[in-house]
Amino acid sequence: MSLIDLLIYLIIAWIIVYYILIKKVKKYFAPYGPALLIKTQAGVKTIDKVSRTKFWDYFVTFFYYAMPIFGILTVVLLIWEAFLILSIPKSAAPPLSYALALPGINPVIPVGFGIVGLIIAVALHEAAHGIAARRFNIPVRSTGLLWFIIPVGAFVEPDENVMKERDSKTRGKIFAAGPGMNVTLAVIFLILAIVLAYSFTPVSGAPVQSSLSPSILPGDIIEKVGNINIVNVSTFSLLSFTPGTNVSVLLNRDGNLIKENVTYGVYITGVVAGYPAQQAGIKTGSIILSVNGKEITNITNFENILSGYQAGQTIFVKTFYKNSIYSYNVTLASKYSYLISAGDSSPGISKSYPFMGIDVSIMGLSLFDQYSYISLLRNPFSSGLLGFFVYLGLPFHYELPLPAVLQSSFNANIIVLNMEYLFYWLFWLNFALGLTNILPLVPLDGGYVLLNMPSLQKNQKLRNAIVAVIGLSVLFLILWQLIIPRI
After folding, report:
1. Parent domain of 244
2. Measured between alpha carbons, how far apart are the two ends of the chain, in Å?
């Protein structure tokens, strides 16, 4: 049975079960779009017991007063992203599925860790609303699961009639409790993930992510090139041998040491269509031997030589490709113009800076810096706020969970490693859910907190106008990020 057949059978079975339950067992099941709300009293007693401690008064009050600050920060973040989005060309626009933090839809979220993380994030978000309601003596009518073939969330149902009778400040505190819980959980799981990361130790060498050479495979760890020991990626980048000559490479492959002879040099790993290298006929996989007679021994050496020329000048490039030597006259383009066309509004280089239109790497290898990776896991704020955004973006580079071929680049107990992944996704999904619900946009919690601010209750028309303007502005910023890169 194929995956598509299985999916069809699951959908048909779900439709049958869905119809039977909402028609025949209405007391416990209710429709929620294509999903089912499974109502139960099982969690009501638990919420009632948990809510009895006075700690929740401080918790709810703190996040109620913190919500406006968080709301302003999230809007500032949206405005900043709105400007950044202007530099993304249409060809580089991420898929719309990236905008949804749903496992199975967003390709960067692993299904297993994603489902567990989402259920916990949503369940405790809703539980916080219930706990806050009970602190103000508002009954919780029911709790339950949101089910769509698999559990996708949870809900808590306070008595809406009683809640409407309470003052606006009380209602605002109840709404603030949900995102407050997610923010708190995000901090807790972030700390746990950081602590676990200290148990990982990097393996010496340069791990290979991808390779143009058939004798070097992804997952191999380069330990020695010629007579030079390779400690890390930085050591590898400093290599300097005669281009086009064979060098001995010592590899650690699945714990076994293997020697391979590889042709050394600065390999062209990609050629940009419509730019000088392609126009001259240079092929991907070529090794750059020299530029205007100057030997190319590594990437730094190549960049230094190339930077001595200007856009519009013609250089003589000699390459090695499939055991033959080729020569090309290449008229350089402007890297400044290229970056502008690629969406970079401020390249930070002169307009005459030269550009061949190629991607290069030593020996045709893409390497993984395991030391920097583990350093980031241990301290996401090592580079300030930017470092934290890099940490958040690890899944979008398919580096968390780390691909299996790269897991040999550091020593880690498999159980602890999976706990690290679980804590990361619990942090990530709670952060995403909390940040989303903080936004001052109805029907999100932040919107209802704004709607119930005591200072806005004297004039309901003015209140509704303010809430509408702020909400529409936030919605505009969100839609801007989804639409502008695709125009």
Report:
1. 206-261
2. 41
